[in-house]
Fold this protein.
Amino acid sequence: MQPSQMSTLFSRKRSREDDSDGQSDPEWRVTGVAPTKKTRTDDEDAPGQRQRDEEFWFEDGSVILVARNVEFRVYMRVLADHSPVFADMFSLPQPKSAATDRAHGCPIVPLEEDSPEDLRHVLRALLPRKGATFVHLDAHPPSTTYETIAAYLRLGHKYQVDTLFDQSLSYLKRYFTTDFDIWQQWLKHNQYQVPVEWGGHESKLFAIGVVNLARLAQCDALLPSALAVCCSSMPTSSSRDLHAPMGLKSG
C-alpha cells in the first residue's frame, strides 16, 4: 500500500496540522544552510540499491519496512499491537501488484516520508515488550536525546502510537513549562536552556525543533518557554541559522 492510500484510509484521532517542513531530519546539525533534498530515482528504489539495517533485520521477520533506502525486517504483530494504523494496514487484503521480497516472501511497506533514524528510534522502543516505559520521567537527568524525543513524537503521531506520543509530550512539558518560577529556577542550573543531555552550546537551537513539535502536537503550552529560548539565541545566530536546522517556517 502506498503512503498516499494510507493517508486516505486512516485519519488521526487527534487533529493535526499539515506542517511537513516541521518533520525535518533529526540528525541535522546547525550549519546555517538547510541540506538539499535528494531527488529520488527509480534506481534508488530498486532492491539492489537498498541496504539492510544492521540493527533491525530479523530473519524470521514478517514484514519489510523501507525508510528511504534502508530496509527493516521486523514483525507485523508487534507493530500492530502498538499502532492501530499498522494494524489496519496489515489487516487489508494485499493487491496482486503489492511489492513482495521474493527471497523472503515478506510484504514490503515503503515509508517514504520517514527517515531511517526516526524509525530506528521508534523500533528500539517498540520491539522489546509491550507497555514498556519509553521515557523515564523520574530519572535525573533522563538519558533521552532530542533526536529520540522528536522521533517518538513525529512517528507516534503519524502511526497513533499513543504511549510514545504521550510520554514524549510529558517529557517536553517537564522542561518547557508554563510555570515561570519553576522555569527560572531550572535555568539557573542550566546555561544552555534545554535538557542537558541534548548537548552543548549549539543544542540551544533544538528549541526551534520543540516549536515545531509543539505545533505538530497542538500543544501551545510548550511555546512560551521554547520561543524564549529561540529568542535568546538571536545575538549569536542569524535568522537563517534559526530556521534551517529544524525546518521552522517563517511567518
